[in-house]
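Folds abound. A case:
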Amino acid sequence: MKRNYFFLFAFLLGIIGWQTNAQFSENFDAATTLPAGWSVINGGDANTWEVFVDAAEAHSPDNYVRIHWDSSTAHDDYLITPAITVTAGVNDFISFFVKSKSSTYLENYEVRLSTASNTDPADFSVVLQAEEKAPAAWTEKRFELSSYVGQTVYIAIRATDTDQLYLEIDDFVNGPIPSYFNPDFELSLTNVDCANTGSEFSVEVNVTDMGGASSVTIADDQGSATQQITAPGTVTFGPYASGSTVNFTVTNDDDTSFNATDDITYSCPTTPGDDCFNAISATVYPLGGSAGNETNVDGAALNDSGAHPSCDDLGTNLDVWFMVTVPAGQTGFTAIFGGNAANKVESALWDDCGGNELACNGYSSSAIATFNGLTAGQTYYVQLWLDSYNSDTFTVAFEELAPAPNCAENPVPVDGATDVTITSGRRVDLSWDAPSSGPAPDSYKIEIGTVSGTYPIHGTVSGNTVAFTGVDENTTYYWKVTPINQGTEADGCVEWSFTTGAYPAAPANDTCAGAVALTVDPDTCANPTVADNSFATDSGEAAPSCAHYNGGDLWFTVTVPASGSVTIEASEVSGSALSDTGMAVYSGSCGALTELVCDDDSGPGLFSKVELSGQNPGDVFYVRVWEYDNNRFGEFNVCAYDPLAAIADNQIAGFKFYPNPVNHMLNLSANDNIEAVSITNVMGQEVLKVSPEATQTQIDMSHLQNGIYFVKAQVNGQMTAFKVIKK
């Protein structure tokens, strides 16, 4: 709620009594320089604080200080209070008023505290408050110092911008914590009547905090009689004419300098259902009997009623409201959506306008929202909106609940089972039988957790099996299956449990020493190796340099083919939960490996891929593959292939390249058009790519480091490849 706190001249009078023992009370009257006891630290350049005196403003009868510094180069500037020896009940509280001078300058600042000195910026290490921008109106900043009783402290205002900064500061007060404070209250609409010519509304004022007073007085700005209460509670004001803005003030009667204000505006809408107070009255039809009685809703005509339920992801929903009474003998109702936006409708249920949210539903693939556990004969309010801003239309109709199904039967694993086997994907398959009697369910709600009665894992399925993955070993799980019939859930279904056994043994290639040799296929992956990280551990080798390694790595070897080029690639196995890998390739031997290249997402999807070229035929490299962050488990493919197997050196008639080795320019010529040329280094990284579109061209390699490079050229649609040595 919008709330303004007024600490006016009355406030200053109200604190006279508790300023008696204050160490200072400084309003900068007629100041042309800083008062005695104040100090300034300029942080390392020629700029200094500048202090100006301006005429009094409405908040105070005193002049105020305008303080300016220029932090166009980064440095610390501080305005520091006199020393404050904090004594309980005497001066354990400090306040001052602050506002910004101009919106044309940055006004970021901090309030800091030091218990050591007022000369070293490093001593001001306690941040009491940091603000991105000083307030545009006079605002009191108050800080309790009770945690520093018996210590001497200094309070500083510190620049945090690297630009000019203007602040206006007044009325520093240091004294005991006041015994009274501002009351707090909330406003809500009530008795809204938009059906008559004289449309009007009333306002309910709910005082939630008395501000430490024995009573508070509530007043509006419309000339209504004031009302006084002696305990937190509600009072009603009004009626007011539609379109009115009504301001309320709640005043602490024991110290009238403490008060709070808020306002509320309401205008009767012209469109039915535009807000809760003008909800469309809806009929709840018998099950299956709403056909032909749907209400059409034009998404382009919706407005924001201001009520934002908990499941509204947009933050501002364009909504329509219905008023629904639960039929006799029923415990709820369903909202059935149709039209081209049927699966985009979200809904919330309220017990009253401005009341309590009872349910909130995201959009449903079945285009049905169910509200259960309600009271027959009671009226509720249904709020509908689309899950995205659009102009779609939809229909809605309300029907009685379908009969509740009975509970599921015969769980697998059986209730109380122990040493349950964990399979690939760290998976346990759960299943159950449909109820043997009663209505047939159309779906099941599944809830799982490691604490009885608490289910952080949950979802809805249409069948009677679930693959539960990511399971921990030697752990007891509690699970519950609740059958659903057209949105109506079974009641009283029992909880089942099972306890997993130990994980199976880690795979042989869990370590570098057990690396599995990959077959190098010609041209493309023809014979991938199926790997499974479900029970892999940390191999103990030094962590790779990419892709969030967190253990669970598997090892392979690859032998460089005669072409000197090899590509290693990971890819998906259908049905596996694993979809993101990292890959690193090493030379050397286990325990003494050197990382050559590390890759995250160069393969298909989020899988990894490494391309090597210009390598020595017969060299053996170690290949390490892991799941990104090691939090998904299952099978994946790993393969190696020779990308040059289908490309013979200089197989294109008339194609020539020279010199080799090359110092600067590599010359290429052909009988036909040379369409494209690419050069990669021995790590498979493309370092140069050109499109000559000529029969002769020169490639400048002078900027490349000395070494072996792999060149591919395309001539009239044909490919050729060769190695060159750069000297």
Summary: The chain has six domains: 4-175, 184-265, 276-400, 409-500, 508-642, 656-726.
